[in-house]
Amino acid sequence: MAQRPRISAGVRREEILQAAVSEFALKGLHGTSTETIAQRVGVSQPYLFRLYGTKKALFLASVERALDRVEEAFRQAALANPADPLPAMGEAYRQLLGRREELLMQMQSYAASSDPEVRALVRRRFGDLYRLVEDLSGATPNQVRDFFAVGMLLNVVASLELGELMGIEEWVTRCLQP
User: Fold this and answer.
1) pLDDT of 9 above 90
2) CA-to-CA distance for 32 and 45, rounded, in angstroms?
3) In three state form, how does the secondary structure of 94-130 look?
4) What are 112-140's pLDDT values in tens digits?
5) What is the CA angle 87-90-91, rounded to 5?
6) Nearest Cα to 66, choosing from 111, 26, 21?
7) Which of 16, 55, 58, 68 is surrounded by the most beta carbons within 10 Å?
8) What is the pTM assigned to this prediction?
């Protein structure tokens, strides 16, 4: 019987992180089992803990991953459209909403903010995103605040899959009309 090639710890860390984002996105910090994450990747639970230390550390890394992707999307959009970066960043965010697990991961980070470590990380990263949008867009404080307000509405719309109710539920149609 041929042996399977060894996979580096770095590759395994990435596989575990991807699986963790998926699991935490659906079940949150407290509802997710590290055993489920380990099984999904095909590693032992002790190996998962060897790479990440604790369940909370893995959750925090998952939050970082989700917010890194938002930050990168904003940077790329602003770079691609320097004349009008705010609408470009908004469109980039709308595109990210199609990656449901990452959106739900972001929402789970807010839900888990009763934990002081999670709250500290999410506050810091939200502040980083806010300042990034200010810096990249040159928008007024009201425009930036509106940008984030619409973004949160879009999070709710995507989380609840309200687009499926367009034309069926009148309130949804009103909510989603520009």
Assistant:
1) no
2) 13
3) HHHCCCHHHHHHHHHHHHCCCCHHHHHHHHHHHHHHH
4) 999 999 999 999 999 999 999 999 999 99
5) 90
6) 21
7) 58
8) 0.89
